[in-house]
Amino acid sequence: MPDSVSTLSSIIALADDISGAAEIAGVAHRHGLLVRLITSTPNKEGMPGPGEALVIDTDTRRLSGEQSFSLHQQIAATLGKSGSRIYKKTDSVLRGHIPTEIRALLESLPHRDALLVPANPARKRTIQDGVYRIEGIPLHQTEFANDPAFPITSAKVTEVLPGFQSLPMNSTLSPTSNPARLFIGDALQEADLRHWAREVTRDILPAGASPFFGAWLKHLGFNEQVGTTPWDKHTRILVVSGSFSGNSRQTAAEFREKQWPVLELHEQSTVQLPADARIALLKLPPETVPNPETLVEGLTKWLKDHLARIPEAPTHILIEGGETAASIMHSMHWENFSILREWEPGTVSLKVFGSLAPVITIKPGSYPWPGGIF
Hints:
Layout: E1 11-15, H1 18-30, E2 34-38, E3 52-57, H2 65-79, E4 85-89, H3 98-108, E5 113-117, E6 125-128, E7 131-134, E8 137-138, H4 157-160, E9 165-167, E10 182-185, H5 190-199, E11 204-208, H6 210-220, E12 237-241, H7 246-257, E13 262-264, E14 279-283, H8 295-309, E15 316-320, H9 322-332, E16 336-344, E17 347-352, E18 359-363
Parallel strand pairs: 1-3, 1-4, 2-3, 4-11, 5-10, 5-11, 9-10, 12-14, 12-15, 13-14, 15-18
Antiparallel strand pairs: 2-16, 6-7, 7-8, 16-17, 17-18
């Protein structure tokens, strides 16, 4: 990193759900920025300074396209006057209102085009010749084809994201006076992310997954910090899973193997956390049909009631699944966070500002929990 952070840019990143916001905040934290994460609409007094980052969870994946467009226009009207460099965090497997939100930002921000790089080569999520694959399997043949809100029906990125133009690896973006253009870049390896980062100028809005964000930060002069953030051991841990992924089932199996309590929250039933449990898992039963509008409500209500009545509440709550995390944050009125630790990309621990709330760790349902976190 340059000698003085005062010479560096300030960064603002927007994500459409809390797990994505936490993931991108973790990347900024890893690169030495002082990071704040909010789940409310920003104001001009809360803009970051040089060497600082503000991450905004717009929580728009659960909204309609029209609502999402309007909210992004509103936010962009504030951000456009901040002087900060802007990044649009998107889902790495292209779920959400991506074209709608990017177009809304381009209307109000001083950018000509948008460059989207959603690939995550480290997790074998790659794009070649405009075709998205996960571990070599076309995207529409993976579990994401069954997403309840945004089912993926094609591996061709331009079919999933209408209006985008696919760019082969090592392409260059030439200036133009044409109306705003939307590009999505191929990427097979980390070097491809670095190439696209070098293509981003002040006229281009960078967007995509967290690895591209990291490559862009390096291009701006922020380098990864050496060493691991110190971590205080927590005496009571509760894992809350609102995911039906294979990783979630594996976590439950690991808990049962270690004889740790696994509480399944059935409809019209109550469960109690054992008083002497150092660690426990609260989850939905495997036979439940996923319904994001109702299922997470039960988990959220149980947790809120539990924290209100138990003298020795958990000191560390680990939440699996963006919908579940968003519901809990909203119910508890937790809106402003600092970053305590990035365990690995996608798994991040947060501290609620001005609150005695437990430490919160969030990860997407499709990622495994990192070793040593329990």
